[in-house]
Amino acid sequence: MSLNQLKVRPKVSATLIFMLLLQFCYAQQDFSKVSDWVNTNLPDLGGRAVMMIYKDGKMVYVQSFNKLSKQQQNRTKVRAKIKGADAETMLQDYTSTTRERIASSSKWLTAALAMTYIDENKLRLNDSIGKHLPIMSKYGKGSIRVWQCLSHLTGIQSGGLRDMIEGFKNTKTMAAAMEQIAMLPMEGIPGKTFHYSNTGLQIIAGIIEKISGKDFETAFNERIAQPLGMKNTDFGKNGVPLAAGGAYSTPEDYMNFLIMIMNEGEFNGKRIISKALINEMQKNRVGRDVVIMNTPAEAGTWGYGFGEWVMDSPLAVADKKDAMPDSKRSTAVTSPGLFGSFPWVENEKKYCAFLFVYNLQNKGRNSKYKELKGIVDEVMK
């Protein structure tokens, strides 16, 4: 091949080099079982998926899977019509730069943002929310603690993501959103009632706006997105940001976040969150005496830390009444979303991975996630 030919086809050459590098990485470890699992489960994953695995300072596996059935194509067209989006664009193959809504994977991002303020002593885990949001005290919820908001233990009766989207449809400011939440009824005792929802993390977003003097999107961009090179990640940039379920991201962007978590708060040599707080995020806060009001299908019997599920559910115990329960740090943590994406960090084997999909069918998700993680664990040992 001549130099002129190479100049005519630079994209082909770049792709070839990338594929050769990937093949070299794959030669070190056999990822065929990972690919086989995704291909086998692809119909149940929505017909499109991106799988990425990072270990030892490099991406060791990156693969896109695209095989939409006719039915899935039709569903996507309907979704495009509802959103007022271009159907052809929404039917494009998934790649590592595809941008999509990640639902509850957003919770991890918001919790991480909160940690940056705790590191600076602008916020404390045991602060009452009434200290920062007087409207909560007005409606009898001021004594709820920050740590309870981060762990779905507020005791507030809450709906799901769709309920919050509908409720905030005509809400223009975070302050108005806080008043809506403040007016919700209680369903249990704070700290003793677990209800997986969007309410607690949305309260955290309201507090962040108060203590920072900035809107939530700006605070997230400055403290998380920019330092991590997450150029295509945000919370929608219009209306009130849904801090617990409204983020949009790409596989590449979200992997940068996971790498930071895996490296105990560091990314590319820069400290984002202290190691101590990364450890605190990964401890179960749901004690045995907690009443479980609601938990999603994908969670099974996992425990919950700050904005993330702890996959081995270490025993959580409070040293005195009404204190924050403590536990050993989990060996693996995750924050899967309503639309099926499954990010996780494996602390013992020192890797992180992300299955990026869009699919509303949640039947059997927990067992599928465990199965996939088991396969990756075996490869990475």
Description:
With about 375 residues, the chain is an alpha+beta fold. The radius of gyration is 21 Å and the shape is globular. It has a domain at about 100-325: Beta-lactamase, CATH 3.40.710.10. The strands form four sheets. The protein has a seven-stranded antiparallel sheet with strand order 2-1-13-12-11-10-9, sandwiched between helices. It has a two-stranded antiparallel sheet with strand order 3-5. The longest helix is centred in the first third of the chain and has 19 residues, at about 10-30. About 40% of the residues lie in helices and about 15% in strands. It has 16 helices and 13 strands.
Give a summary of the structure in a few sentences.
This protein has 381 residues and is an alpha+beta fold. It contains 16 helices and 13 strands. The N terminus is likely disordered.
Named CATH architecture of the domain at 101-327: 3-Layer(aba) Sandwich
Tally of contiguous helical segments: 16
Q: Largest sheet, described in full?
A: 7 strands, antiparallel
Global Rg: 21 Å
Helix content: 40-55%
Low-confidence stretches: 1-13, 23-27
What is the CATH superfamily label of the domain at 101-327?
Answer: DD-peptidase/beta-lactamase superfamily
N-end to C-end Cα span: 41 Å
Relative strand content: 5-15%
CATH class designation of the domain at 101-327? Alpha Beta
Q: How confident overall, as mean pLDDT?
A: 91
What's the SSE pattern?
A: HHHEEHHEHHHHHHEHHEHEEHEEEEEEH
How many β-strand runs? 13
Based on CA inertia axes, which overall geometry fits? Answer: globular
For the biggest β-sheet, the strand order reads 2-1-13-12-11-10-9
Structural class determined from secondary elements: alpha+beta
| CATH topology (level 3) name of the domain at 101-327 | Beta-lactamase
